[in-house]
Amino acid sequence: MALDKPYKDIPGTTVFDSTKAREGYRLNQFFYSLMKAENRERFLADESAYLDESGISGEQKQAVLDRDYNRVISLGGNVYFFGKLFFTDEQSFEIGAASMTGMAPQEYRKMMVSGGRSVEGNRYIGEQD
Fold first, then answer.
1. 47: Cβ–Cβ under 8 A, 6 or more apart, which residues?
2. CA separation, residue 107 to residues 41, 99, 111 (Å)
3. Which among 16, 31, 57, 113 is least buried, having the fewest CB atoms inside 10 angstroms?
């Protein structure tokens, strides 16, 4: 029996739920492996080979290689895990997150300091005003 997921139609939002957790399990395990210096070194030495060892799908692998963080999320990646990739690439979480929005880091920082993005447009597709 499938669970009712009323949040599945929020424009621009991927909710990390039990389905996404299962889909991204190996992907997130790969990200978690980057906590160890020796794994970061191995990954940076040959990213493709290291990813081949991880058991992730070809689509997930390509998203990581492309540093397509929004695609990583859609394929089950959890931002708290893939943040390890930001740090492996020697970039801050702020810069990584800014890249996901298409904003320059300075614009992203200004938006977040002033209260974050507007909630406009973040409603269920079927929701009425």
1. 64, 65
2. 32, 11, 6
3. 113
First to last CA, the chain: 31
Residues of the chain short of pLDDT 50, as ranges, are none
Half-sphere CA count of 125, side-chain side, radius 13 A: 9
Token pair for residue 32? 């978690």
Q: Which tens digit of pLDDT belongs to each residue from 79-93?
A: 889 899 999 999 998
Task: Give the integer Cα–Cα distance in Å for 76 and 78.
Answer: 6
Q: Which CATH architecture has domain 16-89?
A: Orthogonal Bundle (1.10)
Buried b (16+ CB within 10 A) or exposed e, 42-68: bbeeeeeebbeebebeeebbebbeeee
DSSP for residue 123:
S
Residue with tokens 């990583």: 72
